[in-house]
Design goal:
This protein has one helix and nine strands. The protein has 238 residues and is mainly β. The chain has a nine-stranded antiparallel beta sheet with strand order 1-2-3-4-5-6-7-8-9. The radius of gyration is 22 Å and the shape is elongated. 18% of the residues are buried. The model has no long low-confidence stretch (mean pLDDT 87).
């Protein structure tokens, strides 16, 4: 199947990694600098667990010509490992945004962002087993696998666009919405030099609402919806 649905890393607590969700959130926070990390481990009961790690940092900049607008810049690193074959994804992204104040009291902000990065995807062929290596009763590593991979690692560049708007009702109370167009360049990803295999573009819709219900307690509601722009029509080999 084409890499349309389950092509990207993801977190259950996606609010802990907003730069992955939308580059417009770069520098889009109340403060000057921000550093964060999130880790996900799943399926601990299987012999080889799956793990995902993300680390990011971002800040806001102001030039001499800017009165109230800001420029957000950030760095993002992702690492994902899965299964016996150590199928791994390593990603490094540079994020940038332009944050515009839509009214004088800063209660309404609009941000547009760009995320440009590099990804490496690889697996360990020596840890894999295939049907051809079974003699009918036992596994024999000396048997030919019957498979022919042109390579066990591939690289690709990736581009994501995003826009976000935020309205502040009062202190600690806001609603914000973000729209992301990820994999704009539909990068190629293949281990068999099949250049027709591409990562489909995808739309993210993100909505969050926060409101204080006590002196030190806030109610927060969030929703993330992901939708692939295109779907696979038939099976293709990577």
């Amino acid at each position: 199947n084409k890499l349309a649905i389950s092509q990207d890393i993801h977190f259950s607590q996606y609010n802990g990694s907003l730069l992955n969700a939308n580059p417009a959130f770069t520098g889009f926070f109340d403060g000057d600098h921000r550093v964060g990390a999130i880790y996900r481990s799943q399926w601990q009961t299987v012999p080889v667990s799956y793990s995902t790690f993300s680390l990011f940092g971002d800040t806001k900049l102001k030039t001499k010509n800017m009165k109230s607008d800001r420029i957000g810049v950030g760095l993002l690193f992702n690492n994902d490992k899965a299964g016996y074959a150590n199928y791994s994804i390593n990603q490094f992204y540079l994020s940038g945004s332009y944050i515009h104040k839509l009214n004088s009291d800063s209660t309404l902000l609009w941000s547009n962002g760009l995320n440009v990065g590099f990804s490496n995807v690889a697996f360990n062929y020596n840890k894999m087993t295939f049907d051809n290596q079974y003699d009918g009763n036992n596994y024999n590593a000396s048997y030919s696998t019957g498979e022919n991979f042109a390579k066990n690692a591939t690289n690709y560049a990736d581009v994501t666009l995003g826009s976000a708007i935020k309205y502040m009702f009062k202190q600690r109370a806001f609603v914000q919405y973000g729209l992301t167009y990820s994999h704009v360049n539909t990068p190629k990803i293949t281990f068999q030099n099949n250049t027709s295999i591409k990562i489909d573009s995808k739309l993210y819709n993100y909505v969050s609402f926060q409101y204080p219900i006590a002196n030190s307690l806030d109610l927060m509601v969030e929703l993330l919806h992901q939708h692939p722009m295109f779907r696979a029509k038939k099976k293709k080999n990577l």
